[in-house]
Amino acid sequence: MEKKELTCICCPMGCALTVELDGSKVVDISGNTCKRGDTYARDEVVRPVRMITSIVRVKNGKLKMLPVKTKEPIDKSRINECLEALKKIEVQAPINIGDTVLRNVTGVDIIATRNVESV
Which residues touch 47 (CB under 8 Å, ≥6 apart)? Predict the structure, then answer.
């Protein structure tokens, strides 16, 4: 049996979780004070995912950079691939919150998290 120690990131409590594994099968989870901790621990040891936030260049905008994020969490192993794709793009102002700025990067869309007006 293998044991993994995690800190839950689902709420401000930051529970110290212990996950017992038999190969890739979760046998037991302890330390969580809510059900979200159990779900987080199972997902984290089997298929860890993360939301990515970054910035991209803006052409003809009142701001030079636009904050963006993934619409959904992506596989942790694909973070660098996502960031490399974001380095290469420049969006045209105007941009509105929620606009898709890049489609299907590592399986998810990248969306704007701020409005940027044209100059």
Answer: 75
**Tens-digit pLDDT profile for residues 65-92:** 999 999 999 999 999 999 999 999 999 9
Sequence-separated (6 or more) residues with CB below 8 Å from residue 44: 6, 19
Instruction: Give the gyration radius of the chain's Cα atoms.
Output: 19
Q: Which residues contact 111 (CB under 8 A, 6 or more apart)?
A: 68, 69, 70, 71, 98, 99, 100, 101
15-67 tens-digit pLDDT: 999 999 998 899 999 999 999 999 999 999 989 999 999 999 999 999 999 99
Tokens coding 13: 């409590």
pTM greater than 0.90 = no
Parallel, antiparallel, or unpaired for β 2-7 and 90-92?
unpaired
Q: Give the SS3 label for residue 43.
A: helix
Long-range CB contacts (within 8 A, 24+) of 96-101: 100/71, 101/56, 101/66, 101/68
